[in-house]
Design a protein that fits this description.
By secondary structure, the protein is mainly α. The chain has one domain (2-354). It has 16 helices and five strands. The chain has helices at residues 18-22, 26-55, 61-87, 95-102, 104-107, 112-125, 157-164, 168-183, 197-219, 224-250, 260-263, 269-276, 285-295, 301-306, 315-329, 339-354, and strands at 2-3, 185-186, 189-190, 278-280, 333-336. The strands form two sheets. The protein has a three-stranded mixed β-sheet. The chain has a two-stranded antiparallel ribbon with strand order 2-3. Strand 2 and strand 3 (189-190) form a beta hairpin. The longest helix has 30 residues, at 26-55. The chain starts with a strand and ends in an 18-residue tail after the last helix.
Amino acid sequence: MSSVIDNPPVLGRSAPSLISLVRPSDVDIRRGRRRLHLKAAGIVALVAVAYWGLVFSSAGWIGRIGFAGLLVVGVVAVGTGIFHDANHGAFSASRRANRVVAHSADVLGASSWVWRFKHNTLHHAHTNVVGRDSDIEQSPFARLAPQQPWRRWHRYQHLYMWVLYGILTLKWFIVSDVVALLKGGFGTDRFPRPPTPRDVAVGAGGKLVHLGWAVVIPLLFHPWWGVALFYLGASWLVGFTLAMMFQLAHCTDVVEFLSRSDAEHQESFEVHQLRTTAGIECRLPLLGGFVRWIMGGLDHQVEHHLAPRLPHTVYPAMATRLRVLCAERGLPYHEHRSVWRAVRAHGRWLELLGRDPSRITADLRLAPGRRP
């Protein structure tokens, strides 16, 4: 479901911001953090049990596959429900605690230092801005925004990208962080400061720790081919799941994409986020509860982009008020009615953007005045 206004009204300077009107009280935020900490403890326990069952138990192949599935769920939940909040400074009121918990990404094989720049600075400050938001820059493999160049192989991207999404975690572990550090940033955007020796050491140490628990220790108990099979399979599932959570929010046919010049003329930061972000409505009681749990608030992407420093456990209450405010102010509020509809929307977008733009005339959602 989405409410699309081609030219939403400019929020007056005297009008209270949406954030100020939907922000929970300090008491609610503290309660939300306590719920988040309890959830984090449960996630860590799940990962520990799954890892023990997969590596150390005497379970047969069927049992190990089950434990591997639980480990995938746990690792995804660490990324969405622990690291992601800590990375934004939302896991704790303590800045130091957030930084410590954010190192859970390093243990999973991705540099938390590089992530903060790529995700917090580039993605959140320049959501769906071509040339600034590195999350939508998948050249040459995919064309995710209308302003990006088209290549002949993009006509098949709606088929092969589903496979490539699963390589996300291996890409972080082996390639992306190293390339970013060597280049000093992403694209034309440079790191605000060069990484210190400590930053590099922590990132490298995290990758060694990841290699140790995910590969070396299992090799002490199991044949190499079994370890390789389970590692690559679990890694692909984690990468695919994480990639989809972000793509469904920003790369579908209900949100907008802007060039740098268009972004400079946006009405406000809040309007920009409303235009370029979509949430996912989870209606089914059991399935919806699991989806919300494993997504760690990323089903409420709109609320997250407006208030990334708040724990994701407070987003559902914010969403109820925000929908009403957006309707009252004539502002867009994009929301897929289900996970399946969100997946279909992303598939349609991949197929549409894969067509040769010189041969079609499509109503691609661009900034006002820039439709083809």
